[in-house]
Structures are given as structure tokens and as C-alpha cells.
Amino acid sequence: MAVTASDEISLLKELADISDEISISRYHAQDLKIETKPDLTPVTDADRSVEKALRKILQARRSQELIIGEEFGSPEEIAPNSRYWVIDPIDGTKNFLRGVPIWATLIALVNRDGSGHDQVIAGMVSAPALFRRWFAAAGFGAFTEVNGGPATQINVSKVAELKDASISFSDLAGWGDRKERYLDFLEKVWRVRGIGDFWSHMLVAEGAVDIAAEPTLALWDMAPLAIIVEEAGGIFSDFSGTAGPFGKSGVSSNKTLHKKFLDAIKSPAS
């Protein structure tokens, strides 16, 4: 029997229930264990516990599907005509360990076709400290659930002019030679807020923000965000304009403003 989009969403919700139970139990924990990884980013025992739990379930339920995780690595090779999961057990670890509630577990399922082209086909963002979830599947639409309530379909905004647009970002680090152009762009929009991380992009999907951008990201930071924004009617790409979460940067928008943003922040060298 073929696996449907509803089946994938049901599994994503089950995984999110488990991740939420683990992560929220360690949030504000006095004995939280924190280490520094080789890339100088922090990792907690909660990050590792969530990823281990999700891997265990997926290996039992979807043994043919490989797993890429932030904490426990990636397979050496992913063959054409296969599917794999992407897990960020806690996106926003710095917020998590400081008691800021903007953190979430990110889970996505990716299909690799016969030519080696990858496409996210389902994704979940679960932020228990914010009492919110967002999820989507290809052709299924994008939805949010608030405090365990019913799922509500979400859509990007219809804002078409920069003077009316709202933009969100994490911080001003990492922009390199694009920074001055980015700062100039911020002067042209209606509202600028540094909400950051996954939440900026989910606000784009909900139509509350029109553009969200970050200059340096990994696949596990972006995979579920991309399909949720796309299924809500928006666009997710890297800064070169290549669609999807497979580059090194991420920008989501309501589609109407996407090219305007990318043109505005083009590197002087390009």
C-alpha cells in the first residue's frame, strides 16, 4: 500500500510528540549538560536525547530510509530513488539553554529521484515552549496547531510593495560583503524585527512576516521550513535564487517580494 501525505503527517506528529516530551522536560533543567562542539556551537543532553529517540523510531518503522541528523551525522551515500530523513533535534540551542522559548525540533522527509535530485516532501516544526507546531506535505498544504488545538491552514501574505513589507532575521553576523546592501534594504521596508531562527520563516508561512533571511544555514536548519513556506504559497531559496533548502543560506518570502530581496542583496562580486 502506498504511503500517503496523511500517513507522513501522522508519523511526523508522532515524532513531534516524542521530541516535545523529551525537550520540554529538559528545558530550564538545573542539571542540563552543555558541551561545545568542534564548530564552537553548543550542544546539550537534550539535543542528543531527542535525536537518539527519533532515530530509534525511524529505524524501526522506516528501516529502508536513511537519516541525516545534526548531532549523529549522515550516511556516507544516499542512492537515487530513495528517501531520507533530516533531523535538527533542537533548532535554537542557544535560546534553549538560556531559557528563551524560541526553539524547536525540525524534522523533514526528502525524496531523491532517479537523477539524484532532492525534494522535501514532508516537514514538521514543533516548538513546545511556544505551544505551536507547523507542518506540511507536498500537495497537502501547510498547517499550524496552537496549544494542541485543531489544525488551521496557513498562507503567506499578499504584500506586494517593500514600503509595506515586514522582514525578520536572526542577527547581523555572517553577512560578509552583502551586509551593507542588506542594511540598505532594511531602510526600504515598513518593519524590521530580529525574531530569528525557525520562527521567522514560520511567520512568513503564516502571512505575519513577508521576508525572512539568514546568510549561513545547514540542511537540517532549513528542510522542513522550505516545504512549509512553499505549501503556504511562498518561496524558499538560497541567496543565489536556487529553490529549496539545499544551499548554504536561506530566504523565505511571500513569493511577490522574493526577487526584489535577492536583487537588493547581491554580492558586489557577483
Overview of the structural elements:
The structure is a single chain. Helix 4 (179-186) links the parallel strand 10 (166-169) and strand 11. The protein starts with a helix and ends in a 6-residue tail after the last helix. The protein is an alpha+beta fold and 270 residues long. Helix 1 runs antiparallel to helix 2 and helix 5 packs parallel to helix 6. The protein is globular, with a radius of gyration of 18 Å. The chain has seven helices and 14 strands. The strands form three sheets. The protein has a seven-stranded mixed beta sheet, with helices on both faces. It has a five-stranded mixed beta sheet with strand order 11-10-12-14-13, covered by helices on one side. A two-stranded antiparallel sheet has the order 1-2. The protein has helices at residues 5-26, 45-61, 93-98, 179-186, 197-206, 219-231, 258-264, and strands at residues 34-36, 42-44, 66-69, 82-91, 104-112, 118-127, 132-137, 141-146, 152-153, 166-169, 191-193, 211-214, 235-237, 250-253.
Give the structure's gist in a few sentences.
With 270 residues, this protein is an alpha+beta fold. The chain has seven helices and 14 strands.
Number of strands: 14
Number of helices: 7
Inertia-based shape: globular
Q: For the record, give the distance between the C-alpha atoms at the N and C termini, rounded to a whole number.
A: 49 Å
What share of residues are in beta strands? Answer: 25-35%
Mean pLDDT reading: 93
* Main sheet specs: 7 strands, mixed
